[in-house]
Amino acid sequence: MTWTPEEVSRYNPSDNIFLNGLYETRGIPATNPESRAEFLACMIPLTMTDHDMLMRRGRNAAINDLESFAITYFTQLFHLERKELERF
Fold it and tell me: Domain residues of the chain, as ranges?
């Protein structure tokens, strides 16, 4: 089911440089939160509890939460990889 114009208008795009770079690389514009949500849902390992929590408040809230999760998740990955590289 596609997003309604009202849902799209309530989407507040992240201003995170890394996340916006990922979207740009994939060709996903800020005007398409549905594609952004699908992309993030595939990229971030979420439990069923996470999915349930995300969907309770509606899709536009879920994408904002997903973006927040993504920033935290990718930041943690970056720091873990950096620590691994520093070991050598």
Answer: 5-86
The structure tokens listed for 85 are 């590289």
Tell me if residue 58 falls in helix, strand or coil: coil
Where are the extended beta strands (E) located within the chain? none
Scored b (16 or more CB within 10 A) or e, 50-75 reads eeeebeeeebbbbbbbbbebbeebbe
Closest by Cα among 67, 88, 86 to 19: 67
Write out pLDDT tens, residues 25-51. 999 999 999 999 999 988 888 889 988
Q: Does the predicted model carry a pTM greater than 0.90?
A: no
Q: How far is it, in rounded angstroms, from Cα 48 to Cα 61?
A: 17
Closest C-alpha among 64, 70, 22 to residue 46: 70
